[in-house]
Amino acid sequence: MLPEQARPYFDEYGSLSVVELSQRVALAHESSVYVATGGDRVSADHLEELRDGVLGLAKRSGFPDDSDRARNAEFDLQLAALLHAEMGMVPAEAASRDVWAFLALILLPDVAYWRYPQPPRDRILGTDLTRHVFGRLWWRAQLVRSPGEPEPYHALKNLGEAAFDQIYARRAALGGSPHLVRAILRVWKDLDLRGLNERETLRDFLKRLLRLAPFVLFDGIAEHALDQELRFVAQESVDAQRGGPASTVVPAAGTPSHQTHFADKGEASADVSSYAVSVEPSQDRHSGSAALRRFTFVEICAGAGAQALGLEAAGFDPLLLIDSKADACFTIDRNRPSWDVICMDIVQFRPNMRPEVRGVDLLSGGLPRVKSLATIARAEDSEERRVLRAAISLACEIEPKAVLFENVPELVQSSDFEADRAWIENELHRSGLRAAWSVLNAADFGVPQNRNSGFLVAMQNPYFRAFSWPRPNELRPPTVGQVLGPSMASRGWPGAERWIKNADRIAPALVGGSDRRGGADLGPTGSKKAWAALGVNGNSLGDEPPGTDFPVDDHPKLTVEQAAMIQAFPHDWMFSGGKTSRYRQVGHAMPPPLATAVGHAIATALRS
User: Fold this and answer.
1) For residue 314, how many other CB atoms are within 10 A of its CB?
2) pTM of this prediction?
3) Between β-strands 295-300 and 316-323, what pairing exists: parallel, antiparallel or unpaired?
4) Each residue's pLDDT tens digit, 139-152
5) Which of 49, 7, 54 has the alpha carbon at shortest distance from 31?
6) DSSP conformational letter for 160
7) What percent of the chain lies above the pLDDT cut of 90?
8) Which residue in 176, 103, 169, 117 sits closest to 142, CA to CA?
9) Segment 52-55 long-range contacts (CB within 8 Å, at least 24 positions apart)
């Protein structure tokens, strides 16, 4: 079922009861299409059998009325095996979000909305298959199935959903290999974990494997040899957990954690020297001095980690980072493997999942760009507003000392958002937080980009009186030519020197775009014209800087890495995912130097 036809059903079904949704069940739909993979088409009889099987499992778990965590977990295990065994799909078909939208909206809408009442969009439409109500279960079974065994899906019982999320959603480089996942499960079930926090131990184990990923071709290792080596790595994690915090023993970035017998990837690892970034914390994190005290923060909508990186430099250490995009979570893991990242919709997060977040020093986030209620023309445009409300509710619930949210300047300045500002201030005030608003330009803090951002800072009364917004730097920001010149000349382009002289201004604001529309480019027509004046083709992104055969007077396209330089990311910060995903992570980011400036202002108030 194509997205254009699926979205109206999603919007309508959220207001219907399970009984009403049962009346909407169908075996076909006029707008349904078949995945273009060839093979036999699924018959109505087969679909009916599949529905009967799923419905039988659901009824044994309390459908249509009752539901609880224990029965949901058992239902998911049984459903994963049933879907994988009965649907007869190949991975290419299961990778189509349209297949899962059909199941959730046409064949099994009552079961889908019973399992996840008021579900976020990705649970139903399949925009992220690691979270789809049915798709995530099929892929879980695909990863663990052991053909030829009496119980081919027995490994599903070894780990819960949160653990599978760590392996698959947040550790995509590891979770993409069924061979490796099955080895992880075999090794994990035999570990002595008595007295340990299993989630933290697994997290440490996966981080150690992640460090090996650039060097090791896991799929090329025989099963017994892979198990042997994974046991060694897993035991390192167990020993680390018994001896102290895992972060104190994780090896230097880019270095295998032990002398491994793994076959390496040869030249593929030659350029992998370090994952450390150039922005360093500004103070000694172990100092006992009040003036040098470091603080903790929780980051929501963390994206590629830019705002968190800037806050780290301002004296804050992340307790937890949350983002709903697997690629963004994996980006953070690659660059800051000691940071704790959860890949989930912030609307679904509850503080009781991680009690340590209560009373944190700072709750921060770069929230999705909201639109005023007057301009919302489609239901899909209200998704950002849903996240905004969840963020404010979370701030009120965990009661941090301070809150920092970044969004569009209009949220701060426009009369269209007056009601929103009043609601936000009232909600925060009820939790003892006083709010201040401001618009800051990244160019005033050394970023080569004319990028205005709207900020909300809220603090508890003792600290709010000491807070003041950061003042702009006295030095002018570098130009686009100064920042990108070495990169543009790196492959011998004869027009580089001329281009550098022409690109003698700061850049217009990078536009990340929407996941719902189009690919990666440098924004609307006005932005593209501004880029053209700087000698840049903004219609799409390039794969590499211009070479010796690129015309001297032509306009090169920016690469994702060059766009990241404009956002003032460290040069060695690595992004995960396809080109469009990587660019959107860059375009949606808050430049780290701007986050550092605001973070310093908040830290100063907290130290007062």
Assistant:
1) 24
2) 0.59
3) parallel
4) 888 877 877 778 88
5) 7
6) -
7) 50
8) 176
9) 53/82, 53/86, 54/79, 54/82, 54/83, 54/108, 54/111, 55/111
